[in-house]
Each structure stands twice: as structure tokens, then as C-alpha cells.
Amino acid sequence: MKLSFTLLSLFLILNTPFTASANDKDLLKTAKALFGIIPAKQERPDKITAEQTELGRKLFFDYRLSKDGSTACVRCHQPQFYSTDRLSQSTGFNNNKGARNAQSILNLKYQTIVHWRNDRINIEEQALRAFTTPLSLGNSSTEEALKRLDLAGYSPLFAKAFPKTEKPLTLENAATALATYQRSLTTRAPFDKYLEGDIKAISAQAQKGLKEFVTVGCSSCHNGPAVGGRMMQKFGVFHDYWGITKVANPDKGRQDVTKKDEDLYIFKVPSLRNITETAPYFHDASAKDLDTAIRWMGKLQLNKDLSNEQVSLIKAFLESLKGELPKNFREAPTLSSEPYAGPNI
Ligand code: HEC
Ligand code: HEC
């Protein structure tokens, strides 16, 4: 039921008239309605939030918090790769391999869905669980994770970031700090200037690509300020996705989480901001480059064989979504000097 509703709304959106002769202004107006601008100035966090953000930043970069000292959030969400790791499957604690491709944690502020299968309520819950999952930091228990935080010298920082709480050092507070930090990481791109009315901020090619992106129907799923991140959709609306991507063991997506028929092959519609920097693509890393990902999307989601020109125009548009990394992500924080405490504490 839910799926057919989704397909119906997709059909309606795709059939909404968009005049091919639309001039620059019409295109800008359409784009403004579909996406939202990431403001040049983010609202300033109050004092507590600033301390929480900085605490979250330290936690994000700290390898001492994993059971074997091998893993921190930043291992799989690296600044140099725009918060991904260039691997098909990430490796975490004990070199355990994750089931899916690492997603970027940039611009989460503008997204509502967490994980490819929407299996976390919010990014607080995501962070909370990362401390003890064997695919991530690998601590055997909450107590062990808390002990590592204490041994790495975090107690005073938690007390400062959560001053009104009786027991500041908790994993819930660590998760709050990590989520606060991650929500502060947004990237403004030339496309945002375009949306503000500076049409020349993106190239003529990118403008044509934007028009293609809208007219062929990409924006019926990839929309909002993050150009995605707000809905779950079937991967392979018109064809079985593995028929095109040639993966051997197709992932059932959300169905493995809910066990409901209508969730078969349903995945998060990812954000396309900074997409030029985060290859390989798709939950299973099956597309090694962006041209391939665009072409497959056309076929699988819209039943269209995009021409080489359409692919390269759309790519030019996607290039205009690349922004500068925030300084508090590009640069690693200063951590306390306590050594990694060892695997058995
Ligand atoms: C071993 C590598 C690894 C580590 C370590 C890791 N992540 Fe991830 N992260 C991933 C992968 C892989 C995914 C995609 C998982 C999925 O959707 O099934 C992901 C997804 C996410 C997402 C969801 C993004 C989205 O677009 O939905 C968030 C948020 C996130 N990670 C934050 C963190 C934080 C915070 C930490 C540290 C506490 C962390 N990660 C540690 C690999 C890692
Ligand atoms: C019906 C909804 C829908 C439409 C229409 C759609 N997409 Fe997607 N897109 C998705 C979903 C769902 C995924 C995630 C698939 C997966 O990996 O399981 C995705 C993934 C992608 C990715 C890979 C992102 C990453 O981080 O790996 C790119 C690039 C992309 N889409 C571009 C496009 C382009 C370009 C178009 C238009 C030609 C388009 N999409 C049309 C739903 C859609």
C-alpha cells in the first residue's frame, strides 16, 4: 500500500508540467521551491551548546574510545573524503567489516532519515549504539565505554558541557554531544549562492544540468536543502537493481528491519551534497564513479536511458553542490594526553 502510494506521488510529480522553454528565472524559482538554501550564517549556538559541540568533536576523533584502540568515528568518516572512507565496506573494531558503504555525516541537520535502512530513530541513537557495536567502536558494555571515557580524561569536559546534570558522564550525554557536533557540520556550495539569486554562481553547464535534474525527475526524490535525506524509496522502481548493478547478493534494504513486504528493497534517498567527493556509490558501493551512478539512477528509478550529454550536464550540476569543509571538521581537535588504556579494562 505504502509503496503504491509512493509510486503514485512520484508519477504525479513527474507529470507536473515544466516548460522546456523555461527561462533562467523560472528555473531559479523551481529550484527554490524544490531545495532550500543553507544559510551563509548559521544561528549561533548558546554557550552550553558550544561546549557540547567541542566535546562532540573530540569524541568523534578519539581512537582511545574503541576497545582495541583502532577505531574512532573519523576512521570511517574522514575529512579528506568528505566524511566517507572510499571503501566498499568500512572496517571498524577488530577489522570487522560493515554490511554497507559508509555515508557522509555532513549536512545531517537537513536530513530526517538515518542509515540506509532507516534503522535508527535519530543521530543521537545512532551515536549511542556506535559505542558498543562490534562493527564500530566495539566496547563490550556501556560500563566499559564509560570507563574508557573516564580514563581518557573526559570527566571534566562532560561536567562543563552538561553542568546542570547530576551525573554528567553518561553515554546518553556523549551521544547528545556527538549529535550536536554533527548537526553543526554543514557545507555551503556555489549552488546555495545560485539559490540566493546569484545565477552566475554556477556555470551555464551546471544550470542546464539542474534543468535536466528537475525535468527527468531526479528531484522528485532528491530534494530539500540536502538534496536528499528526507525519504525512503525503492532502489529499482522500474527494474530489479541487481540486474543493472550486477551485485551477487542483493540487500533487501528496509525489509530486513521491518519484515514487511512493502519495505522490500527500500533504502534511504541519500543527500547529493558533495557527491563528487564520496565515491563509490550506493549502499553496496556498486557504482565506482558518478557517471555510472547517474546513468543507473536514470534507468532504475525513472526508466530513462540518459544520453552522454544528459549525464555530463547532471554531473556538472552535482559538482556545484560541493562545498567547503567546516574548519572544525577539517582540522583535528586537541585531545588530552592520556594513552589508550588497553583492551581489558
Ligand atoms: C567502522 C566504520 C564506522 C565507524 C567507526 C563509524 N561509522 Fe558511522 N557509518 C558507517 C557506515 C558503514 C554507515 C552506513 C550504515 C548503514 O546505513 O547501514 C554509517 C552511517 C552513519 C550515520 C548515518 C548517516 C546517514 O546519512 O544516514 C551517522 C550519523 C554516523 N554514521 C555517525 C557516526 C558516529 C557519530 C560514529 C562514532 C561514534 C560513527 N559513525 C562511527 C561507518 C562507521
Ligand atoms: C524514486 C526515487 C529516486 C529518483 C527519481 C532518483 N533517485 Fe537517486 N537515489 C534514490 C535512492 C533510494 C538511492 C539509494 C540507492 C541505494 O544505494 O540503495 C539513490 C542514490 C543515488 C546516488 C548515489 C548516492 C550515494 O551516496 O551513494 C546518486 C548519485 C543519485 N541517486 C543520483 C540520482 C540522479 C542523478 C537521479 C536522476 C537521474 C536520481 N538519483 C533519481 C532514489 C531516487
UniProtKB/TrEMBL annotation:
Domain of life: Bacteria
UniProt signal peptide: 1-22
Domain named Cytochrome c: residues: 204-322
Keywords associated with the record: Heme, Iron, Metal-binding, Oxidoreductase, Periplasm, Signal
Protein name: C-type cytochrome
Pfam families from the UniProt entry: CCP_MauG
Subcellular location: Periplasm
InterPro entries: Cyt_c-like_dom, Cyt_c-like_dom_sf, Cytochrome_c_Peroxidase/MauG, Di-haem_cyt_c_peroxidsae, MauG/Cytc_peroxidase
Ranges in a coiled coil: none
